[in-house]
């Protein structure tokens, strides 16, 4: 029973069309699945990733059209990271973000890696992180139809930042339950707050980290557009996931039990600071019901929703994702 690294991160948007435009046209990601939220089929669930939708490269969005703006705060996944191949790539991205009038910070060193923070059109907090010195989990495969050149393109998810009022409660779950290990720390960006703790899992590196930021000066987050719903970690097989279900139950942690998402199998639970964690299998994958060359071009529904296609499509605003 081993966690292999980050699997995906799921966030909220209020506008699927603008979201699709930003993450494909500006960030150069591939839309690997256009489907619906299986818990609320009236709204889209969009998946972006590398060429094949490899586990560890997936950034997903639930569309909630009437969602208010996220009120940033504690008990949250407060930033997402996206990996790029090199330091030179970050200089390219700084220029690209300027060209598209995307607000961003300055190039900064974080635990020996060059980073660049920015926000999308809804205030989603994102960080580009260089893989120049990464020796851990490998990145994904660049999509050959991306508008971003291969040598600069995004190749996967980087560290997720968890902002919590009591770091030791989250650390307990990371270390004692999920098998993360402490790697290092760095100063908080806020004077007077504890250092940010870096934990890694699996082969480590940029694709296997969470950063735990303790903040005693913030109210709890109110989740909305521009906020993050949950972070998922990789489990290799369904059999192993079922063992995790039993382990989490044995610890008397409230959880979802085994969930079949068709493209992967899942288990959801909340750690003590209220952040939603998911464990998800690497497969079957996103080419299960679509040809690899045409991922994301039409509305995909898992078999258990296919009989309801006509009613589902009638309630969705058309979203053109044809290339």
From TrEMBL:
Record keywords: Dioxygenase, Oxidoreductase
Positions of the VOC domain = 5-131, 156-282
Q: Which InterPro entries match?
A: Extradiol_RC_dioxygenase, Glyas_Bleomycin-R_OHBP_Dase, Glyas_Fos-R_dOase_dom, VOC_core
Q: Which PANTHER family match?
A: RING-CLEAVING DIOXYGENASE MHQA-RELATED, RING-CLEAVING DIOXYGENASE MHQE-RELATED
Q: What is this protein called?
A: Ring-cleaving dioxygenase
Q: Name one GO molecular function term.
A: dioxygenase activity
An example of a Pfam family matching this protein is Glyoxalase
